[in-house]
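Researcher: Here's a chain I'd like modeled. Treat it as a single chain, no partners, no ligands.
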Amino acid sequence: MNIYPQTASRVFPSEQLHADLLVAGGGLAGLCAALAAARDGLQVVLIQDRPVLGGNASSEVRLWANGATSHMGNNNRWAREGGIMGEILEENLWRNKEGNPVMFDLVLLDMAKSQPGLTLLLNTTIYELEKNQRTLTQVSAFNAINETFYTVTADQFCDATGDGVLGFLAGAEYREGAEEVDELGEKMAPGDNFGHKLGHSIYFYTKQTNGPVSFVPPSFALKDITTIPRYKRLTSTLNGCDLWWLEWGGRLDTVHQSEEIKWELWKIVWGVWDYIKNAGEFPEAANMTIEWVGVIPGKRESRRFMGDHLLCQQDIIEQRDHYDAVAYGGWSIDLHPADGVYSTHDGCRQFHSKGTNTIPLRSLYSRSLDNLFLTGRLISASHVAFGSARVMCTCGLLGDVVGRAAALCKAYDLSPAELAQRDNVGLLQQRLQASGCYIPRQWLQDPAMGASVTASSEYSLSTLASNGHWHSLGERMALLLPVQTGASLPDITFTLRSASQQTLEVSLLGSARSGNFTPDYQYASTTLHVEGEQEQTVHFPWQSERDQYVFIAFEANAQVEIALTDTHLPGIMTVFNSLNARVAKHTRQVVDGDYGVDEFDFWLPRRRPHQVMPALRFSQPLSCYRADNVLNGRLRPEQQANAWVPAPDDIKPVLRWGWDAPQTFTRLTLVQDNDFDNAMETVQMGHFLPVTPHCITHYRLWADDILLVEETNNHQSVREHRLSTPVTAQNVRLEIIATAGALPAVYALNIR
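Model: Modeled as a single isolated chain. Structure tokens:
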């Protein structure tokens, strides 16, 4: 036993730390930044003011993380975020396909704690900082759990706090609320009636019990449900993120009045639950209980800090490609009324672009300071552009970018603004892609140090055999196929059937922008006459002027069925002119005013296990899976399939890289297919499989005749292998032993 005598006063203990990079904020953006920087050799301190990581994705809030895939509800194909954000999604799918928020916490904590060079401080709040003119030098923080003060000095800083604690305390320039229309020419800029800021949300989970459960509402619960104009939309089956529109606080100070907003949201949640349980309109709710209510709000918007580029609506909608593009977004411009649940407006106004948009490095640092990176919700963006860039997978991707950028700034003695200059930013763009971080319409230069490549086989697409199943063409369906410059599609034969004589229109469609998957043009069309079961051949007299994906589009006719195949191929898929109610209200983007956006059809995939692929036969094989694709530096299907795929009868597929003279290397990064079109939402929704079927689960990497690596339980699309000592060899060989059930696809082996 210890006895401590009375004394005049005592002080809490203190610790001093130093880092190459201090990351403030442990949401997905901050975690990805810390992991990326540590993996690139920096000593990193990550300070998080909560007991868990993940921010709005954590078990404290339980919002599902999503990004450019947009619940597979827009025209962004193969757009799931890569790099560390992609790794998190794939790891969570593997460990937690059921979408348990507590398990997602575990995934994130495990990644942080296992990373060498990363010091994690949870439950720690930054309250003060020091700077020397335009340079931050240190922060002071306090952990109320262990009653310890921390002083952390660092060479570089990253603000990922969501509210911009570092930038605010340092006096950096920032904005709140929406710009006026005439400042940036943004036609979506909201007026005062709609409101200038997004509010907070609190979610709740319910569950069924074996018997009746009564509910006595607290004194502060909302008494009059009709004060919620959209209350008729409430049902007993809605819970969790389905009720994202239980939102409020956009007209308040979303930083300093957060507690007031939280109490109002608790009032709303308990009032809604009282209505469901006790109003007598939902008898099925008698045996239901509320399992969990969020303890803190999920915050959407507060401060946005100024960089050297202010991302705006036109950047998103026009898909502007910046010289310093380092990341991308693809969520809709998603604006919510400031009055939230009490507004007479719909819960959101969403407009999509026709494809992904790039995000420049100039938006990811403060122009007021020389060593402060911005990521997550703090980036330099207008309110309107922020409506797209704020979603968590995009934020995580941006975190990866600034972590890699910080490492390059240290290595080359550059400031963030200097790294963003035209002569320097290529260093970052190439580093990101070498780590498997895809950037639209860019490519990795010389992935394999000038090697040539050969393969044991190549998949030649000629026939997809029928499996005896049929699909009714009750809605428009299209087959996506890649076509090279100067090439024409071979004739394609499908098997169709109908109980009566029917006509079926089939069109060849293409996108105005190469790399998009939104059909703007009709290149050709034909009419098929169907009666009974018969083969039908489609011929289009057309030649492509560029590399692109085209749509073989079948018009809707519910009286006609098409034969299906069991074969599913990477980089080739079917899409449907349909809607996903989570992100759209129609099968076509409908514009009800002059908002500076386009009208177009949505062409959406289907989630596993509901995907379909038509049986078919080409008059000439479609050669889109050549071995030399792995040298083109393109890491996704974009304009072309861009992958090597072995022949289906190749039981031991092998890919070989070779040089005329031996080469020395220390790092091998395998980039392969794990279905980048599959939205791997982190919580609540759940998923069919723990790993997508194309994933290479067992492989070996050889240098000449020396086994370097054997992976026996892989579930990641990107695997970086750092060798303990440099290896010199004239050949590198990838041996594929097993996949998760489908044909494998390899985009690159980055050899460095």
